[in-house]
UniProtKB/TrEMBL annotation:
Keywords: Glycoprotein, Glycosidase, Hydrolase, Membrane, Signal, Transmembrane, Transmembrane helix. One of its GO terms (molecular function) is chitinase activity. This is GH18 domain-containing protein. The chain crosses the membrane at residues 27-53. Coiled coil: none annotated. GO terms for cellular component: extracellular region. Residues 106-464 form the GH18 domain. It comes from Vespula germanica. SUPFAM superfamilies: (Trans)glycosidases, Chitinase insertion domain.
Amino acid sequence: MITESPMSQTKYKLLINPQQSHWKTQIFYFIVIFLIIGIICTWISILISKIFYVQTLEELNQEEKALAGTWLHQVQMHAISMKENHSTNKNINIDREWQSNNSTEKIIVCYYTVPKTFNTVWNLSPSQIDPHICTHIIVGFASIVNCTVDMGVNTRIYEEVVNLKKNNSKLKVMISIGGSNEFNFGFPEMVKNHANRKRFIRSVLNVTKRFKFDGLDLDWEFPAWFEPNEKEKIHFVQLLYEIRKEFDHRSEKLILSVAAAAPQTIIDQSYDVPEIAKHVDFINLMSYDYHYYVWYFPVTDLNAPLFPHIMESGYLNTLNVNFSAHYWVKKMMPRYKVVIGIPTYGHSYKLDNPLNHKLQAPASGFGKLGFNGFVSYSVICQFLKHGASNVFVNKSKVPYAYRDEEWISYDNKESIYYKAKWILANGFKGAMIFSLNTDDWKNECNTNESFPLTRIPYPVYRDQVVFQWCLRWQEMYFLKDGVIKVEFSV
């Protein structure tokens, strides 16, 4: 039975049986217990957040700590204000589906790329992967040959990644097909008619069943991009529809995701966003590689800025995580289906003049470190340990480092922490790490810490679960209008 009464006139209507002669005392104990629980919840939330915050930002100086604390406070207040506005029916553009999916269902998707492919010369083996730092591991990249899935000679590696589920029963392992190795090969021929798509889907079902994958990730870079062809956009949607239809007919639930471009120009030309949204479980937004050395724009800039920096305007002002993610939402992709990509690698430049090492400084090529401009986080750590200067761009929430002619844009613990908090505040589905291979799995940055970057989002989202539980408890038992709601069972 539930009764409500103003706090100023505390009266309770109870169903009293002969054994409840001391009901006033019981009510007093009941209220005291719930007050204690509320205090404990609040204390735990503050303690966990404070511990992790200190660990994440321990290397900052006092000025940077103050800036960081102010920014995090703004993010938290923004998230709380959105919740309050929704509960009081104020005019705010938040769809109902986001509200129902925003509480605790955050995911951490980690790409593991088969060694010796593209920019993954860092030979991380499956046995070295911690199966508890990701909710999903996507292993790739398989190819499309004759409209069927071709896993090459690396089938044993796929099997070993799937076997990680023995140590974490909640882990999902998916296969990715495509990647930047493929560019426009394989997909265009496969999608252009129903017979080819059917052959491909049949091979996908065989592969997922044989290797016990939990789903499929399609990484086509990009439909109708190299050769503008409106039919490719349509055929891609048809492919997703047909895959989803087959997946839904299976007794086991298979996941379908798409690796999606971040620049506005590619989004507009390559994707029918509302139709894609109908069929995918989520998209993995490739919100990185916004800037790297190219001959026609030979200046330094940031790989994956959360926000634009002060010197950017026009089109350059759109090359950041915040714009890309919200542009997908504007194009009608539900925000609870958008997983935000975070790189564990950096991009290197060779400075024209070592004395000019600021943003948009002239550059003449890739730096010496890394491979074709791609630099793993462990190499970046060594670069910093050997005297490189580090600059955190507070406006964009990412760092860069330089020494002599070498200049590197990258993400570190601090920038990823900002991105994880921003994902929470904006109601996106979670974080995507690209990739496990380029994180510091060798413990070269810190002796007792492997995958330091990949580990950042999990405690942020874990703490949010505690916060959400306590918030719901407070909403359930202590109402804003001064009314106490008490539930008794007899």
